[in-house]
Amino acid sequence: AQTVTQSQPEMSVQEAETVTLSCTYDTSENNYYLFWYKQPPSRQMILVIRQEAYKQQNATENRFSVNFQKAAKSFSLKISDSQLGDTAMYFCAFSSGGGADGLTFGKGTHLIIQP
Amino acid sequence: DAGVIQSPRHEVTEMGQEVTLRCKPISGHDYLFWYRQTMMRGLELLIYFNNNVPIDDSGMPEDRFSAKMPNASFSTLKIQPSEPRDSAVYFCASSWDLGAYGYTFGSGTRLTVV
């Protein structure tokens, strides 16, 4: 079974700073998908960004970008120009190419943006 | 589309009572997933359906848990009898595939069993 590890339980940065959240995963598959989800205090799980393992180019969505290192099995999320609304739990998730196990989530990182 | 709709948003029940959580997936999504979120265990997949058929229920913790999907627009997760350790947030999610594009989640049901 795949595992997803987020080693930073909590992080705190000042507004407008750049912050990077770490994620590593373990799999023997070559084709898979990686995701970052945001869970604000409202509890809603919001898809932030998606990466296909067979694409070398790192995904970008506005202020959010990833650093995907396939050989190292690393998938970090960078948030630029952080805003107060970015305060939330962030979950890294893995899905195999066949998806038989569904999405596997890490334990999450609680990100706090300080004014 | 209104997204994935779950009800109730909060549920408080006494130990031993039956609890039913409800979910309406996004129209056109063939897959429906039930997840449980706790501080200790994080997000765990309980069961998923494809075209209303249960495919993998290996995550269902005990026989006290059961899930049904009688049609493409409705699913239930039932706990009978409920226990305090069942207290958690239960999410329903839907997708048109098994995971290449991620899932759309509902807003969850916070269950408290006292």
The proportion of residues in beta strands of chain A is: over 45%
Number of helices of chain B: 0
Low-confidence stretches of chain B: none
CA gyration radius of chain B, whole angstroms: 13 Å
Q: Report how far the terminal alpha carbons of chain B are from each other.
A: 36 Å
The greatest inter-chain interface is formed by:
A-B, 26 and 21 residues
Question: What's the shape of chain B?
Answer: globular
Please report the total strand number of chain A as a whole number: 12
What's the story with the biggest beta sheet of chain A? 6 strands, mixed
The overall average pLDDT of chain A, rounded, is 94
Helix content of chain B: under 10%
Structural class of chain A: mainly beta
| Order of H and E elements of chain B | EEEEEEEEEEE
Mean pLDDT of chain B, rounded to whole units?
95
Summary keywords:
heterodimer; A: 115 residues; mainly beta; 6-stranded mixed sheet; 4-stranded antiparallel sheet; 12 strands; B: 114 residues; 7-stranded mixed sheet; globular
Molecular structure report:
The complex is a heterodimer of chains A (115) and B (114). Chain A has 115 residues and is mainly beta. Chain A has strands at 3-5, 10-14, 19-21, 24-26, 32-39, 46-52, 60-61, 64-69, 74-79, 88-96, 104-105, 109-114. The mean pLDDT of chain A is 94. With 114 residues, chain B is mostly beta strands. Chain B is built from no helices and eleven strands. Chain B has strands spanning 5-7, 10-13, 19-24, 31-38, 42-50, 53-56, 65-71, 74-79, 88-95, 104-105, 109-113. In chain B, strand 5 (42-50) and strand 6 form a beta hairpin. Chain B is globular. The interface between A and B is medium-sized, with 26 and 21 residues.
